[in-house]
């Protein structure tokens, strides 16, 4: 069985020829496409790496096949300047193959490929004809590219004219809206120069002072507040102008015309020109009426958790910004991000009221832990809490605070009904972050650190690590872009052989994913599967992998496809496999699906039911990651004929105790009648060791 690759190589596997026959690692379909189709795929593969094409992989191959047909027609025509080649160049531009290297790659692949095409051997003066055709193609490409750029420039000019017209219109509307709000607002508004000299006030502000609007123009804003409050307001605006704060919010006393002071809330902002220079101050003034008191109460409710009374995530983020700006440079701040362990289990067992009471108790305990510090505690999620400590010379270290938190939480709480409940927490810690870090970014880092701690189990904590944060952010970025990569054909199915250790004959073919990333190179199967599993893409991508594997399968050898725990537990797995077998015509016995042993033992979802149903329709199962979870019992309880040794166990086979355990494990599997597969075989020595240990089939770089 052979499969062509984009570089023109092929990979073959057959009972009589188990080793590589070329530099590829993929089997080939039956009835291989002619050389012209191979050249079209190679052309498509090289050019799509130079530019983004908004088409599926199949559509791209179809377009380039049609383009190559035009090129061949040009080669076989008698025209000195073949129109087909010129049209092909123009169509390349229409397909958006306009990257910096698109034309160069086209010239390279066609210049080499056309000279060796069997269909073109009859062309007289073939090298000269190739030059003529490629010249015509380049001419058509250049002319189409010129026209495309000219069209884009004309569109841009029209857009700019339209944008300018709309901008002027919006400016007029904005000014009109401002005037309407300024005049009709019940909140006092004062527009002043940078030194506080009043330029304009609205009627509401004049009413607060019991003065006509005209009398206030030219006065100084600081003269309109109580003398004891003027310096505080002036200092607030100084910080605003110097960039030390981004918003002014103060409560000060206004002096009315009858010299009776009245409390009012001042909210100030700076109006700057495009160069960043301060031009004016704008101040909103709210009288301390019943309405304003109600508004402040509503604002407090919006910024606090109604259950525990703690600040919420929004309030916590605001305080983070202030704390970072004013923190002591010698000690900085520390952020603790807590998540209660197993809280969903507690809530399900006790009920809503008891779980709410528990959360209130946790809030009280956290207050007690940091009672002696300049700290803020917030509830930033369902069972997640945040602690911000502004460190001093006497502040305890991170490990001490973590110990105090879990010691306090471990004390049982007796809830209604007499239940004594204790909890623990995993904690992500960001110690002394940079002062210029954005609050949202700081919370994102603390959340990533918390998730890293939770991987290790309950009551764990982790300290943020910039290198790990960068790597995880890079991986998260790759993971979320995987769906698009699949759509554009960057993700492919590759195949590797499974080989009998006894006589080195083919024992099967395994289908695996490979991501040909344009910037990061080749990303292997295990990483692809992990990314897909984390982003929820694994179900559709896994179904596509099974379908592609069945389409490429050699009827003489079993095709193996590994499943993740989510795939194995999918209630639609059996129906999906039935549909694939029906569509491809592959016999059920030629397909073998790999089930993770941990998912089988844990009876995750419908894993065990899927195993039995697949066995009933004739699809074999392979127990993977065998030997690390007490999964020998699976050989009796589920219809499994093949087991694959867990990589973690196989890697330690040189250790005496691990070697003995491996040999005993393989012997047990043999007694149960199972075929044993060993992966990661890279050398003759590896193959010999596994053969002597009793394994039957090998996989790895040694076999191709």
List the helices and strands and how they pair.
Elements (H helix, E strand, L loop, with lengths): L1 E3 L5 E3 L22 H14 L8 H20 L6 H12 L7 H12 L12 H59 L3 E5 L5 E4 L1 H7 L3 H4 L10 H16 L5 E8 L5 E12 L5 E10 L2 H14 L9 H14 L6 E8 L2 H8 L1 H18 L4 E6 L4 E7 L7 H12 L3 E2 L5 E2 L3 E7 L7 H16 L6 E3 L2 H15 L1 H6 L3 E10 L5 E12 L3 E3 L1 H11 L2 H15 L6 E4 L2 H4 L4 H12 L6 E6 H5 L5 H10 L3 E7 L7 H4 L4 E4 L1 H4 L5 H16 L3 E4 L5 H10 L3 E2 L6
Parallel strand pairs: 13-14, 16-18, 18-19, 19-20, 20-21, 21-22, 22-23
Antiparallel strand pairs: 1-2, 3-4, 3-7, 5-6, 6-7, 8-10, 8-13, 9-10, 11-12, 15-16, 15-23, 16-17
Q: What does this 3D model show about the protein?
A:
Helix content is 48%, strand content 19%. With 704 residues, it is α/β, with parallel strands linked by helices. The strands form five sheets. The protein has an eight-stranded mixed beta barrel with strand order 15-16-18-19-20-21-22-23, surrounded by five helices. Strands 4-3-7-6-5 form a five-stranded antiparallel beta sheet. A five-stranded mixed beta sheet has the order 9-10-8-13-14, sandwiched between helices. A hairpin with a 5-residue loop joins strand 5 (248-255) and strand 6.
C-alpha Rg (nearest Å): 36 Å
Structural class: alpha/beta
Q: Which strand-content bin applies to the residues? A: 15-25%
**Number of extended strands:** 23
Number of helices: 26
Taking all residues together, what is the mean pLDDT?
Answer: 84
Task: Please state the overall shape, judged from the principal axes of the Cα atoms.
Answer: flat
In order across it, which strands form the biggest sheet? 15-16-18-19-20-21-22-23
């Amino acid at each position: 069985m052979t499969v062509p690759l984009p570089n023109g190589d092929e990979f073959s596997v057959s009972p009589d020829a188990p080793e590589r026959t070329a530099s590829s690692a993929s089997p080939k379909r039956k009835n291989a496409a002619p050389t012209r189709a191979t050249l079209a795929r190679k052309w498509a593969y090289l050019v799509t790496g130079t530019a983004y094409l908004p088409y599926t992989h199949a559509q791209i191959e179809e377009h380039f096949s049609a383009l190559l047909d035009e090129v061949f027609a040009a080669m076989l025509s008698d025209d000195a300047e073949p129109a087909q080649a010129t049209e092909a160049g123009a169509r390349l531009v229409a397909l958006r193959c306009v990257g910096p290297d698109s034309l160069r790659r086209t010239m390279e692949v066609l210049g080499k490929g056309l000279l060796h095409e069997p269909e073109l051997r009859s062309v007289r003066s073939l090298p000269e004809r190739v030059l003529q055709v490629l010249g015509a193609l380049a001419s058509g490409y250049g002319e189409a590219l010129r026209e495309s750029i000219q069209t884009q420039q004309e569109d841009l000019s029209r857009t700019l004219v339209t944008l300018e017209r709309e901008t002027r219109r919006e400016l007029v509307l904005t000014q009109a809206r401002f005037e309407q709000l300024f005049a009709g607002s019940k909140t006092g508004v004062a527009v002043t120069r940078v030194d506080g000299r009043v330029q304009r006030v609205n009627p509401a502000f004049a009413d607060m002072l019991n003065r006509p609007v005209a009398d206030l123009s030219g006065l100084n804003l600081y003269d309109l507040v109580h003398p004891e409050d003027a310096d505080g307001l002036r200092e607030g605006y100084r910080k605003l102008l110097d960039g030390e704060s981004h918003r002014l919010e103060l409560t000060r006393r206004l002096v009315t015309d009858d010299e009776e002071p009245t409390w009012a809330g001042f909210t100030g902002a700076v109006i700057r020109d495009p160069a960043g220079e301060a031009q004016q101050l704008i101040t909103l003034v709210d009288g301390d009426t019943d309405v304003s008191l109600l508004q402040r109460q509503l604002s407090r409710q919006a910024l606090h958790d109604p259950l525990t009374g703690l600040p919420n995530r929004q309030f916590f983020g605001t305080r983070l910004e202030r704390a970072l700006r004013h923190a002591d440079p010698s000690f900085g701040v520390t952020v603790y991000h807590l998540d209660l362990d197993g809280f969903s289990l507690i809530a399900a067992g006790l009920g809503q009221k008891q779980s709410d009471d528990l959360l209130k108790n946790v809030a009280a305990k956290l207050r007690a832990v940091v009672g002696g510090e300049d700290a803020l505690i917030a509830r930033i999620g369902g069972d997640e809490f945040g602690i911000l400590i502004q460190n001093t010379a006497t502040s305890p270290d991170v490990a001490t605070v973590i110990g105090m938190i879990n010691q306090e939480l471990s004390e049982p709480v007796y809830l209604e009904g007499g239940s004594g409940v204790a909890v623990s927490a995993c904690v992500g810690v960001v110690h002394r972050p940079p002062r210029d870090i954005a609050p949202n970014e700081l919370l994102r880092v603390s959340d990533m650190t918390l998730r890293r701690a939770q991987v290790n189990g309950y009551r764990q904590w982790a300290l943020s690590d910039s290198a790990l944060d960068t790597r995880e952010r890079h991986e998260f970025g790759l993971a979320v872009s995987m769906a698009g990569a699949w759509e554009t054909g960057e993700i492919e199915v590759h195949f590797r052989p499974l080989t009998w250790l006894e006589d080195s004959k083919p024992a099967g073919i395994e289908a695996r994913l490979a991501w040909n990333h344009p910037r990061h190179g080749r990303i292997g199967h295990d990483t692809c599967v992990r990314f897909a599993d984390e982003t929820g893409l694994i179900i559709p991508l896994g179904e596509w992998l099974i379908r592609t594997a069945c389409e490429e399968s050699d009827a003489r050898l079993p095709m193996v496809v590994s499943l993740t725990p989510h795939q194995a537990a999918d209630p639609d797995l059996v129906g999906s496999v039935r549909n694939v077998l029906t569509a491809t015509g592959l016999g059920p016995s030629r397909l073998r699906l790999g089930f993770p042993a941990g998912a089988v033992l844990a009876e995750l979802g419908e894993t065990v039911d899927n195993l039995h149903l697949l066995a009933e329709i004739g699809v074999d199962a392979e127990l993977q990651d065998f030997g690390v979870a007490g999964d020998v019992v699976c050989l009796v309880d589920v219809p499994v004929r093949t087991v694959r040794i867990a990589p973690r166990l196989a890697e330690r086979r040189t250790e005496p105790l691990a070697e003995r355990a491996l040999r005993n494990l393989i012997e047990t599997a043999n007694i149960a009648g199972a075929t044993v597969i060993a992966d990661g075989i890279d050398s003759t020595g590896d193959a010999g060791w596994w053969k002597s240990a009793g394994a039957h089939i090998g996989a790895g770089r040694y076999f191709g």
